């Protein structure tokens, strides 16, 4: 549904630099995701369903009893669905890639803050060699405290092909060939209607969210394809690429293109069994990038917490 009435454009521009300590959490203890998770581990779990069947058997319930028939039918249906889900996942994804973090080299774009920072910290804690590429300048004496000891931080514009080539050579020299590539760079949301959005702002969003990913994959993917151990390509996109809202024409278009780019790459390298791809289309996250967005219902539209909040946070390269 569309409308020419300006009152429907509810999205407002995000403040460029939120004050420290002003970030509010969008996470609730009880959400639809929590409820589904609890149900999947209880009433919708085939193992739990078969426990009820065993309890009825222990009571010597006749096989013609309605309770017995219902319990067996329910447990059987859950078992069939679980097996079908496993078969479907294996057919779609193939055999999982064996990962030894001590021998993995991870390159993350947009890793100076937000989700990218959290990913870099997690891989660093697991013993992987991590390289973070971001346009933000981070003081060298504070990098170990922020990212973890031994993380290679490279200040560069990931939308600049030449800068990426230089960054790749440095990673090869200091860490080795990257085996896990994670595209997490994202431009800040402008939050302006299409008619009010400057062309240069639109181009900047496309450049950071989409063109940067194109350059990243063209520069780093050949190394993964040529490696005997293979590798993993991870694209962090957004649900806004599938379901947009007013004031997000540039951001939604770039994320839709990013998801399409990932699926194209997936189709092109599908025949290589040692290369895995993962597309993550996240929803609202509890970082300052989305701190100004308030969902109408936190039960159905809860934000995803990253566990840490910093000024200027948001998984952004801009």
TrEMBL record:
<keyword id="KW-1133">Transmembrane helix</keyword>
<feature type="compositionally biased region" description="Polar residues">
    <location>
        <begin position="1"/>
        <end position="10"/>
    </location>
</feature>
<feature type="region of interest" description="Disordered">
    <location>
        <begin position="1"/>
        <end position="25"/>
    </location>
</feature>
<dbReference type="InterPro" id="IPR036291">
    <property type="entry name" value="NAD(P)-bd_dom_sf"/>
</dbReference>
<keyword id="KW-0812">Transmembrane</keyword>
<keyword id="KW-0472">Membrane</keyword>
<comment type="similarity">
    <text>Belongs to the short-chain dehydrogenases/reductases (SDR) family.</text>
</comment>
<protein>
    <submittedName>
        <fullName>Uncharacterized protein</fullName>
    </submittedName>
</protein>
<feature type="transmembrane region" description="Helical">
    <location>
        <begin position="66"/>
        <end position="87"/>
    </location>
</feature>
<dbReference type="InterPro" id="IPR002347">
    <property type="entry name" value="SDR_fam"/>
</dbReference>
<dbReference type="GO" id="GO:0016616">
    <property type="term" value="F:oxidoreductase activity, acting on the CH-OH group of donors, NAD or NADP as acceptor"/>
</dbReference>
<feature type="transmembrane region" description="Helical">
    <location>
        <begin position="43"/>
        <end position="60"/>
    </location>
</feature>
<dbReference type="Pfam" id="PF00106">
    <property type="entry name" value="adh_short"/>
</dbReference>
<keyword id="KW-0560">Oxidoreductase</keyword>
